[in-house]
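Sharing a chain and its predicted structure for anyone who wants a worked example. Both blocks are below, sequence first, tokens second.
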Amino acid sequence: MPKNRNTFSSLAAWRRRALSRAVHRGWRWVQESGAVTAEHPGRLRFGRIGAGTRLAFPQGTVFGEPWIELGAHCVIGEQVTLTAGLMPDLDLGSEPILTLGDGVVLGRGSHVVADTTVTIGSDTYCGPYVYITSTNHSYDDPHEPVGRQWPRMEPVAIGPGCWIGTGAVILPGATLGRNVVVAAGAVVRGEVPDHAVVAGAPARVVRSWDPEKGWQPPLRTPAPVPIPSGVTPEQLLALAEPGETSGPSGD
């Protein structure tokens, strides 16, 4: 009897492993098939989608895509919402409403809600669950539910090369300069100058770049050392292992 029990247990474990492998293979196939690219847009007809751009599957809410333009080599994570206009099936005119430059990254679960113009510059990276919106509820009438009052809309412009941390919120009317860093969870409104670091709710500048003095206040960590040319990934891995002290050449 113990021998039979062991046989049945081994068979059940084998079946579970086989089922798990099949599920994972199937899900990878679904992800590959459901991804949106310029060559395979599926049901989505963007105003423009550049070469190398990919929207991971499953996508979040997407509508108004004729007024959405995506640059080349953008990475749009799973469950990312991209909308142009207050609701689907509106005629928004001849100009794009939501524009992403080349190389923009939107992390999983992020939302970009463009009821009026939203522009995200090239090579801007957003962590997961970032919320960028050109619309905010108004609450002028104290007797009317806030959700029933007509919202206010202001354009949003995010410069190139920015980094927007996890859970940050970019409010209507915000203008971010070049290479701005937005801390995780920050709530940004108004204008942020080039090469600034902002944090908090509402966000304020906590560090900025001065051409003569460098970063003020100074960075607490040393600047990263550039990787020498010709160094292979294998050599970098070897350097990272404990006890390794030799340089890339092995000397």
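Comments welcome. The two ends are 63 Å apart (CA to CA).
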